Structure to design on (368 residues):
């Protein structure tokens, strides 16, 4: 682990983790898709001291599944949040089960440029058959095949991010050259279902490689910077964290907190009248802010960070901001991003060398 300070992430998609969270939202339904909504949540999270916000996504049309009935694409929302924030990391959820990895890598590299090196990528899978029809692609129903697509997609994206060396853009007025072609590279990837030649159409991201987050049972640990681990109790989370095999480990935690108007249990019961809060196998805290602080203090012994999924954003995020993060800061248990730092730097991850540049240096040394 990176040290005694915990990195806190928060999921800000929709109205909250509960499918009926919209019933307790403080805004009118038409405001869910407004830029002001995204910017407001991002600002609250940044001012509170969160390391990272994540933005869930889905390709299915309104009403096709539980959760938000409409949403703007996660990458587009992330780009808007990046332009309106200055320190917090921003990681959209982008599956590559059906999406073209070349286009995904370009979008994410652009996001890293927009955010000045604060971008991440949460890799997930599209499991529902309706998603294949929405993409106009053949169904990938087998779990192993979906894992293969995620593995290949991350490999292609990482290779494309390296296909431009850091000094490929030279902007030489004297020679009228914008690029040094010798510093652009073909990646020549050939997988089981597709091939990608490259190079990318976007210069290398400021971080070199974006921070890639995902489940180590879905994406090989060697391809991840951050493992998202699950477990319904501390012991299960600790076991999963110990087996992750990634540079950093973040636990998934759902939270429902006591508010001035109602206890957490009362708020959950109110929403459960409409639909169930599905069990995703994650640690779940329903109680006071002090109890959550104590839980996070225990988790710091096993993980580097926690991704919080608030029951209702409009009710739980203010409590997290006013009570939870200040209490953690007072005890020096939380890591707050600093201005001018990249997400990799905030997480204590080194900026990786460009694979093609490193290979050229190695070849020169071998030739001596």
């Amino acid at each position: 682990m990176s040290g005694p300070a915990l990195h806190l992430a928060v999921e800000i998609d929709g109205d909250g983790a509960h499918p009926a969270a919209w019933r307790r939202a403080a805004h009118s339904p038409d405001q869910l898709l407004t830029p002001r909504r995204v910017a407001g949540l991002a600002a609250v999270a940044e001012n509170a001291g969160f390391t990272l916000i994540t933005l869930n996504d889905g390709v299915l049309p309104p009403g096709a599944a539980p959760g938000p009935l409409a949403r703007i694409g996660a990458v587009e929302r992330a780009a808007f949040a990046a332009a309106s924030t200055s320190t917090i990391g921003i990681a959209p959820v982008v599956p590559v089960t059906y999406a073209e990895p070349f286009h995904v890598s370009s979008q994410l590299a652009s996001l890293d440029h927009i955010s000045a090196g604060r971008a991440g990528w949460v890799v997930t899978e599209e499991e529902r058959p309706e998603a294949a029809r929405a993409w106009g692609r053949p169904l990938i129903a087998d779990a192993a095949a979906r894992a293969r697509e995620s593995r290949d997609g991350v490999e292609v994206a990482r290779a494309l991010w390296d296909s431009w060396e850091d000094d490929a853009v030279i902007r030489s007025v004297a020679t009228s050259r914008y690029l040094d072609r010798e510093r652009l590279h073909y990646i020549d990837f050939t997988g089981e279902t597709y091939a990608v030649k490259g190079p990318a159409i976007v210069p290398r991201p400021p971080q070199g490689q974006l921070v890639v987050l995902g489940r180590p049972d879905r994406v090989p640990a060697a391809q991840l910077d951050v493992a998202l681990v699950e477990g319904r109790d501390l012991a299960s989370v600790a076991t999963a964290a110990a087996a992750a095999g990634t540079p950093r480990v973040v636990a998934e935690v759902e939270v429902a907190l006591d508010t001035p108007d109602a206890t957490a249990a009362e708020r959950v019961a109110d929403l459960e009248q409409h639909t169930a809060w599905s069990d995703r196998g994650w640690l779940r805290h329903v109680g006071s802010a002090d109890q959550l602080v104590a839980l996070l203090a225990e988790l710091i012994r096993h993980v580097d960070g926690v991704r919080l999924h608030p029951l209702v954003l409009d009710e739980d995020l203010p409590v997290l901001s006013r009570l939870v993060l200040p209490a953690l800061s007072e005890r020096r248990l939380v890591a707050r991003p600093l201005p001018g730092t990249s997400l990799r730097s905030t997480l204590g991850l080194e900026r990786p060398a460009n694979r093609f540049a490193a290979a050229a240096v190695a070849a020169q040394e071998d030739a001596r």
About this structure: The mean pLDDT is 93.
